[in-house]
Amino acid sequence: MNAIHEADIRAIVAETLAEQQRLHCDDTDAVVSKTISTILTSFGIEDEDRREMRADFQHLRRWRKSVEQAQSYTFKAVITVIVTGFVGAVWLGIKVMLGK
């Protein structure tokens, strides 16, 4: 009368395996979090310093981007000076040739 059907057994097994998987993932997450925390602490970075570190990295990124932009502007300025000098020399040469 109380026969357990194969589908019921499969459902129970699947539910048990899913619960074990959730527990295993929670354990893994805890181990990974602890490991990362330990590594950062070994480098002298405490858990309380995370906000400050994030701000530091954001500042470094802004600084890097501004330096890259300045390099781009410097390159453009150097090219402009060279081209302007060349065009000026050609113009001066033409002016001297026409003046004779």
Describe this protein's structure.
With 100 residues, this protein is mostly helical. It contains 2 helices and no strands. The protein has helices spanning 6-42, 50-99. The longest helix has 50 residues, at 50-99. The radius of gyration is 35 Å and the shape is elongated. The N and C termini lie far apart (123 Å). The model has no long low-confidence stretch (mean pLDDT 86).
Give the topology:
Blueprint: H1 6-42, H2 50-99
Our count of helices gives 2
Q: Structural class from helices and strands?
A: mainly alpha
- Main sheet summary: none
Radius of gyration, Cα only, in angstroms? 35 Å
Low-confidence parts, pLDDT < 50 over ≥5 residues?
Answer: none
The percentage helix is: over 70%
The average pLDDT is 86
What's the count of strands?
A: 0
